[in-house]
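re: that complex we talked abt at group meeting.

here r the seqs, copy pasted straight from the sheet so there may be weird spacing, ignore it
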Amino acid sequence: MTPLFQVAKLNVRAGKFTLQDITLTLNHNDYLIILGPTGCGKTMLLETITGLRKPTNGKIILEGQDITYHPPENRGLGFAYQDSLLYPFLTVEENIIFGAKAKKQDKNPATLERLHNLAEAMQITPLLKRHPHSLSGGEKQRVSLARAILINPPILLLDEPLSALDPQTRYAMRDLLREIHSQEEIGIIHVTHDFNEALQLGSQLLVMNEGKILQQGSPLEVFHHPNSLFVANFLQCENIIPGEVRTQNGTLTFINEARNWVINYLPKNAYPHGEYVDIYLILHAWQIKIANSLDLSPRQPNSWQATVKKVILHSSHVEIACSGKGNWNINASRNEWQKLDLQVGSTVTLSVNTEDVHLIYN
Amino acid sequence: MRNMDLRLQSNSSLFSRLFIGTFWLIFTITSLFFIGVILGLLSYSDLATIRQVLQYEEFRYAIKFTLLTSIAATSLAVIVALPCGYILSRYRIPGKVVLDTLIDIPIVLPPLVSGIALLIFFGPLWGDSLAKIGINVVFSKLGVVVAQWFVATPYAIRTFQQAFNSIDPRLEKVARTLGYSPAEVFLKVTIPLAKMALIGGIMMSWARALGEFGATAMLAGITRMKTETLSVAVFLNMSIGDINFAIATAVVMLFLALSLLIIVKTLVKNEVRL
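got the structure back, here u go
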């Protein structure tokens, strides 16, 4: 089956900044999240896909057709920026059918029916006759989405759609995006700098920095197995430990200043170099198990003793900082924490499952 | 110690009062001076004389001629300023600083100097060639339009450029993705978004054309009932001692300028904000 959308070796230049060899594929019903820090070229990539910027080389293919040099008005892609960008001289209704008006279909009964169905689904029917300046941030964003979707685009491109919203509106909007994706059956490319959005919405994830793609995969795969120090840091991995790998008594061991770790495999990209130094062990806070020092023997592989240094309570979990053979950040559920009955200064046993140990070669 | 602190505090508060007090004084005197100048002009004319002057053929010619030439010059200025203002606002072009400064030249140049430059351009330089195709600019009615256009256009370009600068280009980009060509985006998005600021710019340019004298006098000459705009009429009649005519014309010009200013201020105040 032909993929819905493909970008192959796309290069774009803007002043000194360049997007380099961007390659991605979007299948029907995919929800692709492009994740990266501010200024990494995410918006530039979206603008090139929509035709607002010209690439220096590479290909953009939509439903098997090469659209690399088609003007934006002939691509029919839906595009919504972070800050809604509604036309202040039009009502909400006129804003939504603005795309249909370009094709002289704004008076078409089918268009009007679609307008009302969309307005109903997005809960903006009472706003249709109002002007954008009287809407809240969340309402504006919903209108902006409705405007982008009304033209029945095969792909919807979203530039940080949730960033400018307050937390409550953001949750509602996130659910709405999920609903739109399943009901409209369109491919979505959503750029963001927030990894939580990737986990909550994405079926595919692509991490970018400085105009390059660093990693692609499912959000969980990338989250569990970041392939570089940058990705691990950007995904806010709480425990990143530098060291090297050696074989000790026939067992692969990750060694750093504080302690040795039993590991199952070497990082894939370390092999070609034939050396096992400059390796980082990556552990998420929830991958370290915490137990009362009496409950678990520290002689088990990958377990050691530490002291509780700091405890921060969150609504959903407890963040614990421990010190012992290095500094460790651990997350525990509130329930788990209550059962442990520990305080700052208590001695605990920390442990990690060998299969959870992830190594990267930087 | 405490007493010293209090004394320092009271000194600083006295200085603040003196400082703001001086500002208020200068502001009040300046405002009163401007009001005094306007009222002085109004008090020197009476309604009966103005009414009488309004009936004069010469005055009627001058006002009709001024309105026609200034509207023509402003329209031509708008036609030029829309693309120029847009290009300057939206595109990075080599030598933009030089072009930008060139546009400012007619604003800072004394109108008499602009007039001499135009006279040389349309006289010795290109006069003969233009005459062959039936265009006579020097000492003609067309010269008045050209002089007014030359002085008004930079204002139009500058205000239009600022109007376009104030629009987020992404609003235009969204319209492209919604199916509009660049020309359609300009007409259906850019112009409506900049409408109020553009009208403000047009009014300012028109006001400039209405009151133009120096460049007009140099290029089109000062000929009664031929190249006689309202400004020229004031000058001509002052020079022959017909004070009543000159003042009545000046009062009419004052009201025209005031009306334009009120329109501009109202438009700016009611401008639709993003």
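couple things i noticed - Chain A touches chain B at residues 47, 50-52, 71-73, 75-81, 85, 87-89, 98-99, 102-103, 133, 147-148, 151 (CB under 8 Å). Residues 87 and 340 of chain A are 57 Å apart (CA to CA).
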